[in-house]
Amino acid sequence: MRSLHDPVLKVENLTMRFGGLVAVNDLSFSAGRGDITALIGPNGAGKTTVFNCITGFYKPTVGRIALRHGNLDFAQHIEALTDSDHGAYRGADGSLFLLERMPDFQISAKAHVARTFQNIRLFSGMTVLENLMVAQHNPLMTASNWTLGGLFGLAGFRRAENGAIEKAKYWLEKTKLIDRADDPAGDLPYGDQRRLEIARAMCTDPVLLCLDEPAAGLNPKESLELNTLLMSIREDHGTSLLLIEHDMSVVMQISDHVVVLDYGTKIADGTPEQVKSDPKVVAAYLGVPDDEVEAVEAEVGV
Amino acid sequence: MHKAGTRQGFGDSAKLALREGREGMDVFVQQVINGLSLGAVYGLIAIGYTMVFGIIGMVNFAHGDVFMISAFVALIVFMAVTALAGLSGGVVFLALVAALLVSMFVTSLYNWTIERVAYRKLRGSFRLAPLISAIGMSILLMNFVQVAQGPRNKPIPPVMRDVIVLFEKDGFAVAISYKQILIMVTTAVLLGIFWYIVQKTPLGRAQRACEQDQKMAALLGINVDRTISITFIMGAALAAVAGTLFLNYYGVVVFSDGFVPGVKAFTAAVLGGIGSLPGAVLGGLLIGLIETLWSGYFSIDYKDVASFSILAIVLIFMPQGLLGKPEVEKV
Amino acid sequence: MTSVTSSMAQAQPKIDFSRLFTDAILATLVALGLFGLLIGVKTDQSLNNQMILVLRPGLLALILAAVFVGRLTIGYIIAVRDARPPEAKKAKAAKSNTALWVEKYGLPVFVGFLFAYPLMVLYTAGPQGAIKWIDNFGIQILIYIMLGWGLNIVVGLAGLLDLGYVAFYAVGAYSYALLATSEPVKLFMAAHMGSTFWPLWAFWICLPIAGILAAFWGVILGFPVLRLRGDYLAIVTLAFGEIIRLVLINWVEFSNGYAGISSIPRPSFFGVPFNASDTGFAARFGLEFTPIYRTIFLFYLILILALITAFVSARLRRLPVGRAWEALREDEIACRSLGINTVNTKLTAFAIGAMFGGFAGAFFAARQGFISPESFVFLESAQILAIVVLGGMGSLMGVVIASILLVGGVELLRELDALKVIFGPNFDPAQYRMLIFGLCMVLMMLWKPRGLISVREPSVFLKEKKSVSSDHVKEGHG
């Protein structure tokens, strides 16, 4: 498995406590480069908490979250970086980031981890195009010489802005939103909003894209289109994907690797086929004790 | 606008003692007594802020001016009764009771009307709208009183001047006045009653339900509009008690008296933990203490600076207050 | 045929008059409770300084009658409106891009008018009468427009609710006043640049300094409040504004306290003073000396300062930083997930907004020649915020309209001597200024909670610029 020999993300011993509540308990898993990794589990299993730790919105109580760019040797550098007080190591053959040490906005800006949200967070009063322009804030900010060059309308900034519009157009074409480019994001139907959020995340040039229930609320046709979009993101852009999903048809069809959580603990980790037949997973989903699993399986005809 | 340090309250003897270079335990005790009585007034106003913020999540910016109006109503009633029946001891007491009751009624009517006219339509709309409307209402009320009653200080004849001397040391008497006892007893009793209402009655349950989720409360058959109205009325009634006690304590009121006590009471509400009734009173007592001790030991000129600084510091570093619940950022 | 008769039936609405009357009587009873004591009885001081009560039954009756009639009329209007068929209501809702049109063409037209305004007034009112119109209306309103545009960056674009904006106005005003009147600076300048240099050039040198100092204070005060949102942010900024004012009052050695600072040098025409001397403006340009030249110059000065504010904020809106402000107003968490440094973004908004407040403050000090803490009370902050919100958050033209309505309208009250004919010679309309101002704030919010111009113009477009209805625009978390 790629997650073992070529990981892009390595989560080790992640624990997140809120007061007395343990939301995530000693979780370790890796996501392979170019893989689509699915994080599944019943409601309240702690999946979104894991996402929030990876993307820096929560600081984990314990644990290490490492992200790698390029071909740098993971094992060789990680201990040295952990012992230093830096959050990132940049070498000739790639970079290594310890996400738990970085503030949230730098995780996107420097480590290039992008995310979407379970309850869509678009800039609903801004147009679709503007949403994608905001996503390219950092390169545009540099091009505008931190506003000064832009204020005087220097050529370099105008070029960069046109480039950004082109990129936005590319993603609008790809997500079939090009005709709605000048409409407020809040006017789009639900399925379009989900796709727009993905397009916006992709405009930040992510190495790893984290999707929190991308198929929630989509009809079967939209769900199918989403699969195509996600596959193409992986194929054409080399972006690794990590997704939380309840829709098993999406999970089983597109993911290469599935991690199952229950009550904050990992109960299974493997290919979709392996996970599907794991009695613990079935039990967690159906909520029966282990010894009754077989009976239940027989009943539902797995 | 309100000028810092123009009020001459009961801290005078203690301040005088400080000016003479005395800094003993006796002075400190006197300051604490003065601070607690002032703080009780802030606490009563603070309850109005805290209940309204709890239930509809807005800072009722006009609440300080509602308090000022209550003091004016009490002033007029007190003047009317004493003008008719003289200034003997029993009459003064009756006049105060009458002022309190009428002021509670009229002030409640004010707050009810304000909610009905200026806030209800804006509930659930653009979030800045109720705040702007409340600021407008505050300006409106302040200037209404200025126009209707004139811009000058309005004094009442000195009443209830007796004090109980607690102990005397080196010629400095530590005393508690009847006014101060009145304030503390009234605050304690009212806090008990209101705490009972909010915790134990169906009305209180309805209020807490509306705090959690207005839509759901409405679906379960709670009359949300009426619950909110009653909350405003309760807040106003307490502000009226504060206003009457304030008038009696200082013996003077002016149209601009709503702003600074209003901000201080709001500070108290935040310090105690917004949404918490005991928190509001605790916050009020602390603000009163800090203000009196600050004026006594540091500088009376900067006492409002101290209050505003506490407000900023509390909001920035512990927005959940002393008795409030911490808020977790939802992603 | 049937459809015609049914619409005929709808056209004649049934109005429940008995209910209207009950409502009006109830409203009058409430008004009696509200006003019975506070209007019906007036506390007054007798000749020997005793507090007395004066009864005013006539006034009370008049007001109650007004409430009764008013409630009846409003009730009737609402009843008629509600009874109208639904199609008629819909027709009104089909508003096109009028607001966007106002935003686009209104400003150039208005600016053109402003450039001609002093000359028009001069022509119609003559040099004596013109000063009042240029100063009280022109300059006064323009100061508020500039402040509104400055605060618009913070509140309208970045969604940071600032109730202490007047603090930066004060910083600008005191920076200029203190520097320009400081003895050491005067002596230093006299020694190095000649004795006439400083009085003539002080304004032009101090103007940028005032802006920079205000921006600096914007960052200082902005830093601690970064985590706060909404109402809490508003209250903390209010507290900061009050602290600055109270310090100005109490720190007498620094700011001269309540007494304020006087004899602040007036701005020169780039080194040429406006006085009756031989080297003065009038003499230099071969004109007869009158004070109107200075007033006209100040008018154009504030006009240009305001236009710079408008230009910069319109430009910033189309730059990454401006888009980040608006995104921040919409959703801070999404911003962070896209790699936007929200701390820097908020601080730039505070700093730039404060800088324009500082410029306006320096101008204010130079125009008045005297400043004191009384000019920087909370009411001013509330007034500026009201202008931004009433105008429509983020709209430049909205600020203009709201300033004219609120500042100009209230200023106009002073002029209404005609009211004395109705209310008697003791009636002073200026007394009611703030009363009416507060009332207007409440009424405008009830009428248009999202402001007069409640559409947003997109900062970039692919094919067609469509206005964004403010129903989508969020009001900001912080």
Topology at a glance:
The complex is a heterotrimer of chains A (302), B (331) and C (478).
Chain A: H1 2-5, E1 7-18, E2 21-32, E3 36-40, H2 47-54, E4 62-70, H3 74-83, E5 88-91, E6 94-98, H4 104-109, E7 113-115, H5 128-135, H6 137-143, H7 148-151, H8 155-174, H9 190-202, E8 208-212, H10 220-237, E9 240-244, H11 248-254, E10 257-262, E11 265-270, H12 272-276, H13 279-286, H14 293-300
Parallel strand pairs in A: 3-9, 3-10, 7-8, 8-9
Antiparallel strand pairs in A: 1-2, 1-4, 4-6, 5-6, 10-11
Helix pairs in contact in A: 5-9, 8-9, 13-14
Chain B: H1 12-19, H2 25-56, H3 63-85, H4 89-119, H5 128-149, E1 154-155, E2 163-169, E3 172-177, H6 178-200, H7 202-212, H8 214-219, H9 224-250, E4 252-253, H10 259-272, H11 277-297, H12 303-317
Chain C: H1 2-11, H2 17-38, E1 41-45, E2 51-55, H3 57-83, H4 86-93, H5 98-157, H6 166-181, H7 183-193, H8 197-222, H9 230-250, H10 252-255, H11 281-284, H12 292-317, H13 320-330, H14 332-337, H15 342-368, H16 378-391, H17 396-415, H18 418-423, H19 433-447, E3 455-456, E4 468-469
Antiparallel strand pairs in C: 1-2, 3-4
What does this structure look like?
The complex is a heterotrimer of chains A (302), B (331) and C (478). Chain A has 302 residues and is an alpha/beta fold. Chain A folds into two domains: 2-112 and 206-300, Rossmann fold; 121-205, Rossmann fold (3-Layer(aba) Sandwich). Chain A has helices spanning 2-5, 47-54, 74-83, 104-109, 128-135, 137-143, 148-151, 155-174, 190-202, 220-237, 248-254, 272-276, 279-286, 293-300, and strands spanning 7-18, 21-32, 36-40, 62-70, 88-91, 94-98, 113-115, 208-212, 240-244, 257-262, 265-270. In chain A, the strands form two sheets. In chain A, strands 7-8-9-3-10-11 form a six-stranded mixed sheet, sandwiched between helices. In chain A, a hairpin with a 2-residue loop joins β1 (7-18) and β2. Chain B is mainly α. Chain B is built from twelve helices and four strands; from the N terminus they run αααααβββααααβααα. In chain B, a hairpin with a 2-residue loop joins β2 and β3 (172-177). Chain C is mostly helical and 478 residues long. Chain C folds into two domains: 13-87; 110-469, no CATH class. Chain C has helices spanning 2-11, 17-38, 57-83, 86-93, 98-157, 166-181, 183-193, 197-222, 230-250, 252-255, 281-284, 292-317, 320-330, 332-337, 342-368, 378-391, 396-415, 418-423, 433-447; strands at residues 41-45, 51-55, 455-456, 468-469. In chain C, α5 crosses α15, α8 runs antiparallel to α15 and α13 (320-330) crosses α15. The longest helix of chain C is centred in the N-terminal third of the chain and has 60 residues, at 98-157. Residues 1-11 and 91-96 of chain C have low confidence and may be disordered. Chains in contact: A-B, A-C, B-C. At the B-C interface, α3, α4, α5, β1 and α10 of B face α2, β1, β2, α9 and α16 of C.
